[in-house]
UniProtKB/TrEMBL annotation:
This is Sugar phosphate isomerase/epimerase. InterPro entries: IolE/XylAMocC-like, Xyl_isomerase-like_sf, Xyl_isomerase-like_TIM-brl. Signal peptide: none annotated. It comes from Paractinoplanes hotanensis. Residues 23-258 form the Xylose isomerase-like TIM barrel domain. Keywords: Isomerase. It holds the Pfam family AP_endonuc_2.
Amino acid sequence: MISRVPVLLSSSSVFPEPTAAAFELAATTGYDGLEVMVWTDRVSQDAGALQGLSDHYDMPVLSVHAPCLLVTQRVWSPDPWERLNRAAQLAETLGAPTVVVHPPFSWQRDYAKNFAAGLAKVQARHPDLAFAIENMFPVKMAGRWFVPYTPGWDPTETGFDAYTLDLSHCAASRINALGMADKMGAGLKHVHLGDGTGEGRDEHLVPGRGNQPCAELLRSLSARGFKGSVALEVSTRKAASRAVREADLRESLEFARKHLAEPAGDRSAPRAIAL
C-alpha cells in the first residue's frame, strides 16, 4: 500500500505512443500508478483493456481524465454529460478515486448553463469519487486574449468541491501556482505536475525547466493537508527516441519524489503576473 503521496504518470505524457505504452513506461520507470487520459485511442475508453494492462504491469489506475479536449468531443458520445457519466463509470470500475474534469467550453451553452447543478447530480450517483475541476487558461488569437471557457478559466471563481491544480496551465495564464493552490484551499484534490515559461501557451514542460514554483508547490502539499495524488502531465511528443522519452519521465518522477519529501520552504514568490 502506498503511504506517500502517489506520483502517477498521465498517459498523455507518452503521446504519440498509445495508452498501453504508458503502463509499460510507468512500470519501467517506477511510478506509483497511472492517470488515464480518455481520448481517441480505443484502449483508453475500454475498462476491460485498461484493467488487463493494470494487472499485467501491476500498475493501478488512480485517476481518469474525462474526455474534455477539443479532439475528444465525440469520444463515447457528442453529449458532454454522457461522456462525464461514462468517465465516472470507468473510474469506479478501475478503482480510481479521482475524475479530472475541464470547465465547459463557451460554445457548450446548455452544458455550461447547467454545469454546477448537473455535476452535483453526477456526484450524487458516484459519492465515492472526487470530480476535480481543472484550472485552464486564456488563449491569444490575433493579438487579443480570448477565454474559451464558461464562465471562465479559473474554476475557483465559481466554486466547486474539488479541484485539479495544473501548473502548466498556471504558467499559460501567467499566474503563480502557489496562489492558485491557496484559492483552491481544502478543495485541492489532485495535481497535474508540469512546467511552463509563461509565454501564453500550454507547454507541459518537464518540471524544473520552466518558471513555475513546481518544487515549492510540492513541498507545500503536506502542510496543506493534501491527501490526493500528483500526476506527471508533461509533453514528450518531440522526444527523438523512446530512450529520450523515458529519460524525461524518469527525471520528472525523481523531481516529484524529491520535493514531495522535503519540508515547505519560503512562500514569498510572486503570486501573479498581469496579463
